[in-house]
Amino acid sequence: MATIHTFPDSDVKLTVDHVSAYYGKTKAIKDVSFQVPTNAATAIIGPSGCGKSTLIRCLNRMHEVTPDARAEGKVLLDGVNIYTRDPSEVRYRIGMVFQKPNPFPTMSIYKNVCAGLRLNGVRNRGVLDEAVIRALKQAALWDEVKEQIHRPGAHLSGGQQQRLCIARALAVQPEVLLMDEPCSALDPIATAKIEQLIRDLKGQYTIVIVTHNMQQAARVADYTAFMYLGELVEFGPTAAMFETPKETLTEQYLTGRFG
Amino acid sequence: MPGTVSIRRRVTDWTTYVLCLACVVFAIGILVIIVSSSVQHALPAFQGSGVGLFTRAEPLPCSYAPGGIPCNDFGGIEPVLEGTFYLMVLASAIAIPIGVLAGVFLSEYGRNPLGRTLSFLVDVLAGVPSIVVGLFIFSVVLWWQPTIVYSVISGGLALAVIMLPVVVRTTEESLKLVPQSTREAALALGIPRYRSILQIILPNGAGALVTGALLAVARAGGESAPLLLLELQPRIGFTGWTHSIVPIPLLVYLWGFTEPNANWQADAWAAAVTLIGIMLALSLCARFLLKRRLPGSGM
Amino acid sequence: MSDTPEPAPKLLTNRPIDGEISMIKAHLMEMSDWSLQMVQQGMAAMKAADPAAAARVVGMDDRLDAFDVDIEHEAIRILIARQPAARDARTLGAVLKVNTYLDRIGRLGLDVAKYVRDTPVKPPLPQWSLLEMMCEQGCSMVRASMSAFTTGDVHLATQVYDADDAVDELNRQVLKECIHGLQGDPPEPPELVIYVLISRHLERIADNACKIAEKTIYMETGHRRREFLTANNKVAL
Question: Residue ranges of the domains in chain A?
Fold first, then answer.
């Protein structure tokens, strides 16, 4: 039986309601339910294969992009089930940053950042300019690239590319930002910058971050969900959970006993 | 004895190297021979007509010309340039849009058993002999609109069918080279799928795509077999879409093989050289684009 | 609910940090033995009013200090290297605190020895027997709480707490008897006052033993003593 912390309704941004996810016949996520609080950072941790990446991809309907993949259950964004809405609309409001930075290679930094707006019909140059500057500032990248925003983004370092992807996601002003192991491919300094960014952003955005690094969860997340073999074992405030976990499995994972 | 072993190895190394080099030289040598002998045979025509080779119509031997009318023993190949041009334009206009969209489908929506089967069938189409394609178009047009069996339209259709698998294949392959992470990034921004294909994925693979199109055009430009069937009432130059026309390869056949007049034979050689020149130009264009301008070309 | 019971994970029983924690707990045990020796030898020196013995106790301070510093270094090193969480983290936090408590215990013994130099009481006055009882009980509480700490025995830790009352009572008794003695007929020598101070020190030793017990409970359960007792339907005093 899992230990799941709950919130008063006014504090909840996303509600995961009995979600199960399949790849073909394999059940990767088994009946997971929990709430994601507004304007806070929530981490999802667990050993390899526990379903954390699958879970976060269910939160913006990216899971169904994989061939032969499907999901059951409901994910409520402000009370409305995203599985009943148009997927593009959902993904506009719930942005995602991936493990390996993936800026559009053929586009300049400017075009990359405003891609989400431009390709959804925004044409006004003034609006796009303003959005690009704002997003790059929010992603703590503006100072480093302001001289070269019309040059391609390919020659940026790994950490800068990832911040570019974050700026691109922020430009459309989503309500929720999902991050799937955003620092896995980065060196420690770049990682530290992104962790600082998360701490700065979480006052404005609801952030969900998947990480295989427990200490990262301890550093950036207010709440943490621990998953094992597709099930949600424990969910609660990070500090308390890491100091005194309530479930034995959580204790075993946190103390590195999983062999 | 280490000494003897190493000598044996070195001899083998050297022999292999020389052998491979010889094969390369052989292959290039053939090209050199073709080009040089063509140029050699075409020289009289270039010398005789000069630039006019490319602007004038069929030669009018002075022995046949009524008095007063300007005559020239070599004449020009301008009509066949027109022929190649119109056929290429029509074939491209049909094959490239259809081929690109088909390639898009196979790459973006066809990553499943059905898609793989369709892709395989496209490969089969590429292997169909061009004369059979010509015969097929002949019979279809005959059934549909017999009057235009020998026309630019039917020739263009045949060449389009030949170009199609090339365009489909190169489009599909170049789009498949676009990493899945790019597609996911586009989708995750809430961009509708069709938009992401048109404005992010296609531009990403544009380089290889254009190269593929150019190579398809080059391929079709050199086809002669189907046109033998479909242009049996040759006219001089372009007289209408529903009328027959003679492209360069056909001229090479008609005047190179069956025409006794030595001057006209030289003209045919000149046409062959021109065709080789056009192929070369298209290939260089493709390489140029690959290296410099368009992204996503894998260089 | 899952359809099939999830397989239990294969657990590591021999993590590197396990060995390190065992070792650091063993060092704390050594430190506690040394501290208690300082207490007992200090008391013996006081009873015999032997300045040489007292000087020996003062000489023991260096080693006590070394224990303090070394164990602290060891704990910090483990924290940096292993970045522990949950029980391991609580354990290392507890180790650092217990380190301080044992240092205080040793120092209390040292203070008793120092009184020998300035205020020897020879022969010991009748109230000394109370002090001896307090010392015995305090030392056994320290031993028990350290044993509980090393083995993680929460039950034993709660028992240590229960023994504290007796020591408090003895402390009050000493004060009463000393006041009584000074006002007596004939009055005891004024050096008796020193017994009141010693009594306080011994009471503090028992206190520190309770703190070690409290840390043991926290280390094992994550709860403070009060929460633990209420959670186990016991009454917190």
Answer: 3-102+174-254
Neighbours of B (≥3 Cβ pairs closer than 8 A)?
A: A
Q: What is the pLDDT of residue A102?
A: 93
Q: How confident is the model at residue B38 (pLDDT cuts 50, 70, 90)?
A: confident
Closest residue of A to C12, CA-based? A257
DSSP code for C7: P
Q: Which of A250, A255, A258 sits opposite C88 (nearest CB)?
A: A255
CA separation for the pair A208, A212 (Å, rounded): 13
Q: Does C5 touch chain A (CB under 8 A)?
A: no
Higher-pLDDT residue of B54 and A82 is A82
Q: Where are the beta strands (DSSP E) in chain A?
A: 3-4, 12-23, 26-37, 41-45, 69-77, 80-81, 94-97, 176-180, 206-210, 223-228, 231-237
Instruction: Tell me the helix, strand and coil percentages in chain C, rounded to 5.
Output: 80, 0, 20
CB contact under 8 A, A258 and C2: no
Please tell me the CATH code under which domain B78-293 is placed: 1.10.3720.10
pTM listed for this prediction: 0.81
**C87 contacts: CB under 8 Å, gap ≥ 6:** A251, A255, C219, C220, C222
Interfacial residues of B (vs A; Cβ cutoff 8 Å): 111-112, 179, 181-193, 195-196, 199-200, 203-204, 206, 295-296
Residues of chain C in contact with residue A31, where contact means CB-CB under 8 angstroms, are 1-2
Nearest residue on chain B to A111, alpha-carbon basis:
B200
8 Å CB contact between C205 and C108: yes
Q: Span A3-102+174-254: which CATH code?
A: 3.40.50.300
User: Which helix (H) or strand (E) segment is C235 a member of?
Assistant: none
Fold of C16-231: Methane Monooxygenase Hydroxylase; Chain G, domain 1 (1.20.58)
Q: Nearest chain B Cα to A122, which residue?
A: B191
